[in-house]
Design brief:
Elements: H1 5-16, E1 22-26, E2 33-39, E3 50-56, E4 67-70, H2 100-112, H3 122-130, H4 132-146
Antiparallel strand pairs: 1-2, 2-3, 3-4
Helix pairs in contact: 3-4
């Protein structure tokens, strides 16, 4: 199957010049499907964790956003139990000017800055709002349990 030049270029750059703490490797049998690994950012409850994600570029890419999902369990107000991510650029704020790299950097930034006011996991968001210290502690425990 032939890939658009843009996807080939982006993939080459991801491999040649990876963003710090992020790796994305395309599947040999489907170059639109990437295995992604994001290291938990320093000074976040996810520090020291290694999170596996999947990223898929739909046919319409770059006119529509990539599909990104956490495969590693994570306790985060903007990521639900199925690993779906609540992030504006993956939905209505997507622009063809953005790239796979931008998306992965944004997901990494979301780990540093959970936003309980725009939740996907309501129970986790409630916990973050009512008892941030306690919620951060649970995020740390889950990171130790599932992402090490």
């Amino acid at each position: 199957m032939s890939l658009p030049k843009r996807i080939i270029k982006e993939t080459e750059r991801l491999i040649a010049d990876p963003a710090p703490g992020i790796s994305a490797t395309p599947h040999e049998d489907n170059l639109r499907y990437f295995d992604v690994v994001i290291s938990g950012p320093a000074q976040s409850p996810f520090e020291g964790g290694v999170f596996r994600l999947e990223l898929f570029l739909p046919e319409e890419y770059p006119m529509s956003a990539p599909k990104v999902r956490f495969l590693t369990k994570i306790y985060h107000p903007n990521i639900d139990k199925l690993g779906r991510i609540c992030l504006d650029i993956l939905k209505d704020k997507w622009s063809p000017a953005l790239q796979i790299r931008t998306v992965l950097l944004s997901v990494q930034a979301l780990l540093s800055a959970p936003n309980p006011d725009d939740p996907l996991a309501n129970d986790v968001a409630e916990h973050y709002k009512k008892d941030e210290k306690g919620a951060i502690e649970v995020s740390r425990q889950w990171t130790a349990l599932y992402a090490k």
